[in-house]
Amino acid sequence: MIRLTNLADYAVVLMCHIAARPEMLHSAFALSKDTGIHVPTVSKILGALARAELLTSQRGIKGGFILNRGADEVTVAGIIEAVDGPIALTNCVEGSAHDCDFEDFCSTKRHWVRINNAVKEALASVKLSEIAVAADWEPTVDRKVALLGEISAPIQRN
Fold first, then answer.
1. Residue 56, φ and ψ in degrees, nearest 5
2. pLDDT tens digits, the chain, 158 residues: what are they?
3. What is the set of domains in the chain, with CATH numbers?
4. Helical ranges in the chain per DSSP H
């Protein structure tokens, strides 16, 4: 079975939530409440997405994360690679040291490269904008109250 890691799956969920409300700053706590993903996991994923320059972070009491570019410029492949590293179905397509005893005489290696490229291209063809629209994102009642408080709170100027 070919399966994404939970972190990659959660990263796509979080990016869909962020893209659904691109004008908002999204905190790890609020995203955790909205998605049910634990705060430490959300924080870890947001950090990885920011390091990959998919998100921009804004520090401070009213800080959070926002998309670094338009949702139509972000792909599912980019999100997965930000969290999990290069997409590689087998060790031999990764380009690093391999653990396969058969690599020197493997007759299928060139086919795995082709298959891996097809999967990567398929993931790269899916834009965040396409799946964020399909995501049913509705803040919880608690989050709606918090959002109303954030909207009505005076802006602090330094």
1. -115, 135
2. 678 899 999 999 999 999 999 988 999 999 999 999 999 999 999 999 999 999 999 988 888 999 999 999 999 999 999 999 999 888 777 766 566 777 778 888 789 889 999 999 999 999 999 998 655 555 555 555 554 444 444 444 33
3. 6-85+127-152 (1.10.10.10)
4. 6-20, 28-35, 39-51, 76-84, 109-124, 128-134, 141-152
